[in-house]
Amino acid sequence: MGTKDSDLSNKASNDAAKPNIAFIGLGNMGAPMAENLLKAGYALSVYDLSEEATQRLQQAGASVADSPKDAASNAQVVISMLPAGKHVHSVYLGENGAAGLLAELPKGTLVIDSSTIAAADARMVAESASKLGIDFLDAPVSGGTGGAIAGTLTFIVGGSADAFAKAEPILAVMGKNIFHAGNHGAGQVAKICNNMLLGILMAGTAEAINLGVKNGLDPKVLSDIMLQSSGRNWTLEVYNPYPQVMENVPSSNGYKGGFMSKLMQKDLNLAMQTAKDTDVETPMGAKATELYAAHTVENGDRDFSSIMARHDSSVLS
Amino acid sequence: MGTKDSDLSNKASNDAAKPNIAFIGLGNMGAPMAENLLKAGYALSVYDLSEEATQRLQQAGASVADSPKDAASNAQVVISMLPAGKHVHSVYLGENGAAGLLAELPKGTLVIDSSTIAAADARMVAESASKLGIDFLDAPVSGGTGGAIAGTLTFIVGGSADAFAKAEPILAVMGKNIFHAGNHGAGQVAKICNNMLLGILMAGTAEAINLGVKNGLDPKVLSDIMLQSSGRNWTLEVYNPYPQVMENVPSSNGYKGGFMSKLMQKDLNLAMQTAKDTDVETPMGAKATELYAAHTVENGDRDFSSIMARHDSSVLS
Is B57 exposed, middle or buried, given 0-12, 13-18 or 19+ CB atoms closer than 10 A? Predict the structure, then answer.
């Protein structure tokens, strides 16, 4: 479960220096991230709408709060992992006239939002935080639920260098690679650039393998050749979309688990929105978005490598 | 210049066992490939329409022939490196009623065609060869003129296992990775699948970097993040399309050298033709083909990473 030896060995001596953390959002990603913080000796107060989710964390040693404000009442650091921009907006800035969490936090609180949302939304929250003397970081992750459980996530962070330096040891408990992408919003921008490219790689690799197979090539032989040639990419390295070419990947397990097609589509839509807002052309990304939009109609819950089925529906059986 | 120590040290003892080779087509790729064979101790008879090209090889130790037939008159192996399918057809099968080279070769001759042509054309020549008892291999390369000079090309070979085994030590003089992709035509199929995917990777990576830059990210920081995340691909590893992110790549040298956009477009067109002939859909490949077709109108002689200029023409200056 990814707890790191160095953290365990330091637990006794360092707990006193560790900030209290409020953790908001205990879904498939948030729950294991919070558990890794507990294992590393951080005192956690957690909040989620789901009682099942909070009970799980309570058993792991967290105290359970009734609201985000309650969770943050004794915290120096707030971490959130929420489904979409509207939830982040609601929690931090409030809605229907009610004040958000930012207004309740003392100056100097460090807020780390690991949700994947539009860069514009992240910048809006960061600006409000800044006016209140609160350090806000957008820190979306990649690595999926497997990475969240193992504590090997990649964090892509936007915000000030000072706030990044404060956040880094905490993020290092939950992740392996921690990048400072730039100022506010840069974490979200870098993540959607990466995930747009990933969608292009996956759709393109699936179609290149299919072209070879339909012309008599063995999918494994072709994959090996491209892996050692200029077609090399992450999907051929660790995530081949053709069944039985690699072991222990979703394509060899009925496209179960992994990163759901509908989540890839969400990220592609964010990339398209960002491109549109900033008047940038992304023809390859737009084509990948179109393919995933059609694919998710029936296959949204399957891993995103199931885009292979667009070319050959027999791979689903 | 890539001559390998093992070949040099074996030269004296092994020359007697080395087959005589006819080499047809001494362009930017063929000439350095032929030179590497000479350096490894093979006796070469060469043919090209260009006198300048044949003189260069003559100075390097080759004998110069007046025709493909003349070049092959005392050869057990024929290697060709020609611009397109029509030239391969003409040399081996003849044209305007004249017989081609195949009809002149003794049974058991090994023919290796390293041109990049349509798989259907390669299969047609292979079939004619087979009827005459001649072993034909399609063996297109990747690695460009740099790889040809250094003797580090990748050969992707289609044909019988027996013929492949005979060809392998000869190809190993000119290349580093030698793949047996399958039966006749499989080398061409695998190469165009790889190069279609490469076109997709390059166009997609250029556009992902541009989206980040236009949203305030540093191109090197974003490239580093994607390189260590799921956007990783060959172009980010060794061939970044954004100027000054990497040293010693065409993008940092005015997009000179490398692999010309018009050659990428040729390969993409071959992929599209193969897809059409075999009723296979390639939407990402088709989009990349469309982008390169527009790009080559003015930039055909620039390296194919100059597709970056589609988004930001200032990179050309």
Answer: buried
Express each pLDDT in B23-46 by its tens digit. 999 999 999 999 999 999 999 999
Of A179, A189, A217, the CB nearest to B189: A217
**CB-nearest partner of B284 from A207, A209, A221:** A207
Q: Identify the CATH number of the domain defined by range B3-183.
A: 3.40.50.720
A257 pLDDT band, cuts 50/70/90, is confident
In the block, tokens 């496209």 appear at A255
Residue A197 has what pLDDT?
98
- Whole-number Å distance between alpha carbons of B39 and B62: 10
Percent of chain B with pLDDT over 70: 95
CB-CB neighbors (< 8 A) of B270 in chain A = none
H or E segment at A165? helix A161-174
What b/e readout covers B245-254, taking b as 16+ CB neighbours within 10 angstroms?
bbeebbbeee
Write the CB contacts of A127 (distance below 8 Å, at least 6 apart in sequence): A184
- Show which residues of A are catalytic: 191
Identify the closest residue of chain A to B283 by CA–CA distance: A287
CA B271 – CA B289 distance, rounded (Å): 9
| Whether the Cβ atoms of residue B212 and residue B191 lie closer than 8 Å to each other | no
Nearest CA in chain A to B144: A230
Whole-structure pTM value: 0.91
A241, HSE (Cβ side, Cα atoms, 13 Å): 31
CATH number of B190-316: 1.10.1040.10
Domain ranges of chain B: 3-183, 190-316
Q: Are strands A44-47 and A21-24 parallel, antiparallel or unpaired?
A: parallel
Catalogue the active-site residues of B: 191
Structure tokens at A109: 């609180």
Partnered with residue B154 across adjacent β-strands are B142, B177
pLDDT for residue B10: 43
Interface test with A, best of B201, B224, B274, B312 (most A CBs within 10 A): B201
What is the reported pLDDT for B15?
55
Residue owning tokens 């974490």: A187
Mean of the per-residue pLDDT values for chain A? 93
pLDDT one-digit tens code per residue, A194-216: 999 999 999 999 999 999 999 99
Q: Please report residues of A whose CB lies closer than 8 A to that of B177.
A: 228-229
d(CA B78, CA B20): 9
Q: DSSP for A227-247, please give it.
A: HTSTT-BHHHHH--SSTTSSS
Contact B201/A198, CB-based, under 8 Å? no
Question: Do residues B151 and B4 make contact, with C-beta atoms less than 8 angstroms apart?
Answer: yes
Give residues with Cβ within 8 angstroms of A125, minimum separation 6. A88, A89, A92, A93, A102, A113, A136
Instruction: Tell me how far apart the alpha carbons of residues A240 and A251 are, in angstroms, rounded to a whole number.
Output: 7
Instruction: Determine what percent of chain B falls in helix, strand and coil, rounding each to the nearest 5.
Output: 55, 15, 30
A198 closest CB neighbour out of B214, B225, B230: B230
**Choosing among B121, B141, B154, B211, which should be mutated to test the A contact, i.e. which has the most A CBs within 10 A?**
B211
Contact B70, B54 (CB under 8 A): no
| Residue A149, SS3 per DSSP | helix
Closest to A126 (Cα-Cα) out of A135, A114, A115 = A135
Tell me the shortest Cα–Cα distance from A62 to chain B, in angstroms.
31
